Amino acid sequence: MNTASNQPTIPDDVRGAIGREIMSVLNACTIDVPIEQTIQELQVAIERLSFGGETMGPDISMDDIDTLLNGDISAGTMQFINWLQERKSLSILMGQRGNMFLAFCIRYYRTIREVKCITPVVLSEAFRISLLGQLRTIYPEPTRILFDVSPSLVAGCVIDDGEKRTDMSLRSASPSLVRRFITRHAHHRRHNG
Fold first, then answer.
1. CA distance linking residue 58 with residue 52, whole number of Å
2. What would the pLDDT profile of 126-137 be if each residue is shown by its tens digit?
3. Cβ atoms of residues 31 and 24 within 8 Å
4. Alpha carbon distances (Å) from 15 to 8, 12, 35, 62, 111
5. What phi, psi does 159 have (nearest 5°)?
6. Helix, strand or coil, per DSSP, at residue 45
7. Can you give the pTM of this predicted structure?
8. From CA 158, how far away is CA 148, in angstroms rounded?
């Protein structure tokens, strides 16, 4: 059955599966990017691709897309855009469809939790993956787990899930460690001195 615009009608279950696949790919591509940044980059991409689509037509190339986005989009979002372009589905980021997609993403990401793991130095890939695996037991997908660096931490890490901040850094432990050391040292001096 055709609609007035001669587009085939897509059954709701197929439309739902396509939507889940698109969101799954978007999440996979941008998992290391804060949600707010992902939303902002999608908005920039939709605005520029809508303009580019009007002037360059529907067969816009990745070179044209790179020119339009001018390096203002993260590698993950560019990977998502490339995935859409390869599947000839870039129109989801253009015009009215783009605005509808952005509105959906804003609603969707309101339900996604974001957890920050803050360390004093950039973690090696192997250690980051190991820590990510441990954090996933507490914060399963689709929670975003972001790694950040704060050189003011001495050692350890801080986990901030938006509701609770757990400080497991040496800086937070230092006062109690110093007290324990002084108590032990004073006790030792009394008995041996």
1. 9
2. 888 888 889 999
3. no
4. 12, 5, 24, 26, 21
5. -110, 125
6. helix
7. 0.72
8. 10
Which tens digit of pLDDT belongs to each residue from 142-187?
A: 889 999 998 888 778 889 888 888 887 776 554 454 455 555 545 5
- 30-45 burial string, b = 16+ CB within 10 Å, else e? bbebebeebbebbebb
Q: Is 122 strand, coil or helix?
A: coil
d(CA 99, CA 123) in angstroms, rounded, equals 37
How many residues are given for the chain?
193
pLDDT digits (tens, 9 = 90+) for 30-62: 988 899 999 999 999 999 999 887 777 667 888
Q: Distance (Å, rounded) from C-alpha 167 to C-alpha 154?
A: 11
Query: Beta strand pairing status for 144-149 and 114-119?
Result: parallel
How far apart are alpha carbons 21 and 87 in whole angstroms?
Answer: 12
